[in-house]
Amino acid sequence: xxxEYIRYRIDPARAEEFEAAYARAAVPLAAAxxxxxxxxxxxxxxPECYVLRIGWTSADDHMRGFRSGEHFPAFFAAxxxxxxxxxxxxxxxxxxxxxxxxxxxxxxxxxxxxEALQRLTEVFxxxxxxxxxxxxxxxxxxxxxxxxxxxWLGEVFRGPERYSEERGGYHHMVRQHLGKAITEAQRRRxxxxxxxxxxxxxxxxxxxxxxxxxxxxEWGTRIALSNSQPDAAxxxxxxxxxxxxxxxxxxxxxK
Length: 255
Hints:
Blueprint (H helix, E strand, L loop, with lengths): L1 E8 L5 H17 L3 E8 L6 E8 L2 H8 L5 H8 L6 E8 L13 H5 L1 H16 L6 H4 L6 H12 L5 H6 L2 H6 L8 H18 L5 H21 L28
Antiparallel strand pairs: 1-3, 1-4, 2-3
């Protein structure tokens, strides 16, 4: 992905109409398949300064695909009165130097850390071994399997990187599912029992956490199902997945 930054200097008397113009321009911009995301920010220290950030699938997709595409005319018509106020317009490549700060807790911390995830997997796998549909998949698992799944979840939810350091990371987990021929019915039961286990052990029940948690479980079980099929050839080396809050950060009531 390429990030485009456009710096504007707008007369404060025209700020309201400028922002309204970009609100209109955002409609065709968002509709363009070359656009990943966008954000218009206003400087607090110098209110006449604005920065527009647009993520593009590539610089060529922006310069050729978008600018010659069906959505550009409406976009440009909305912002044309302000083109002369542009002070900088450049594309930037993203670097690996990025991350999240501590103002928003990780899902690992919000869930209760390793202790909570260990309780979750212990309850879940106890239920699995009593379940006629899932027992055939797990009846030969190693005694410490629940422990390592909890460690995996901890790293996925931005906790300690123990699974990578002690177990080998993604390539070890993906091999656990090869050739298992998991069925859709088994996947659905897997999800249902995990959700029941989350209730039983008292994982946070707020909508934001449960939505993010369910999102990962749905994603993970669907990946496992796909990778387990007889004709599957999944990549055996890939980065560890990491899960966050998505579009709904954790809700904290005002004090």
